[in-house]
Amino acid sequence: TIQQRVLGAEHTSTMATTMNIASILGRQFKFQESEVLMRELLGVQLRVLGAEHPRTLTTKYNLCAVLYDQEKFGAAEAGCREVLAALQRVFSAEHPTTQAASTL
């Protein structure tokens, strides 16, 4: 994208745009394309923000949903368990974000 060329893949605006595009692809039932973008974004976020940053965890959670939509249930469950454990460490088990994540 133009934004990626101008600002770079590691810019917060570029990361947000990438997630928005991946989400739109998922809503269009283009799950494989969405998964590819989310995995690319996750790689950038892990490098730039770290594994337990809330945005990184949100991307991981969204990736789990896309995996579930593709009937990749084992990978979706494993990813959700990782996200839930990280949210419990970062926020607490009682935090609304953690509670919401435990429903998938």
Overview of this protein structure:
By secondary structure, this protein is an all-alpha fold. The protein is built from six helices and no strands. α2 runs antiparallel to α3. The longest helix has 18 residues, at 31-48. The mean pLDDT is 94.
Task: Pick out its properties.
104 residues, globular, mainly alpha, 6 helices
SSE order, one letter for each helix or strand: HHHHHH
Termini separation comes to 32 Å
Main sheet makeup: none
Name the helicity range: over 70%
| Global Rg | 14 Å
Question: Which runs of at least 5 residues are low in confidence (pLDDT < 50)?
Answer: none
Secondary structure blueprint with pairings:
Layout: H1 2-7, H2 12-27, H3 31-48, H4 54-69, H5 73-90, H6 96-101
Helix pairs in contact: 2-3, 3-4, 4-5
Q: What would a concise description of this structure say?
A:
The protein has helices at 2-7, 12-27, 31-48, 54-69, 73-90, 96-101. The chain is mainly α and 104 residues long.
